[in-house]
Amino acid sequence: MAADPTLAQLAPSGSYRALTVVLRVFAAFAVLTGLLDVVTGLRLPVSSGAHLPAAAVIDPVLNSHIKYMGAVWAGFGAALWWTTHDLGGQAAMLRILLGTVFLGGIGRLLSALPRDGRSDEGAERAGNLQAPSSEAWMGVIPHGNDNQPSGTFSDDAIRSRI
Predict the structure, then answer these.
(1) Which end of the chain is less crowded, N or C, counting CB atoms within 10 A of the terminal residue's CB?
(2) With 60 as the cut, is the pLDDT of residue 57 above it?
């Protein structure tokens, strides 16, 4: 079976390897920051200068939620790293993961909209820029067939088919 044309076009230009590196850096960031949230809870944002009401800082439910979401974020990073070993074979999972980040970015953008004459901090809105950038990468993710054996779209296999 012929290689996916999208992936075949990426391989000679080095974009395939660049995409893998970018995704792995993003995955490592997600795992690291997620684990930091699990370990520190609310202490990390507060020590980083987050302006939270005193009642929020000592709220055990909020602290527990931060730790739980940190574990989810670390798991996301681990799943993303896993997909980078076979981008073609794991294309569907990669699209789901990046689509999740995009959807999360939409949610953050919506919460930055003014409500009752107020809006959230500008820095929070600036953090939403990761969602469109992750969506842009989705255009170069190969359309792999998840029924094919793992490794079908490895670098060596691609080069041998071009």
Answers:
(1) N
(2) yes
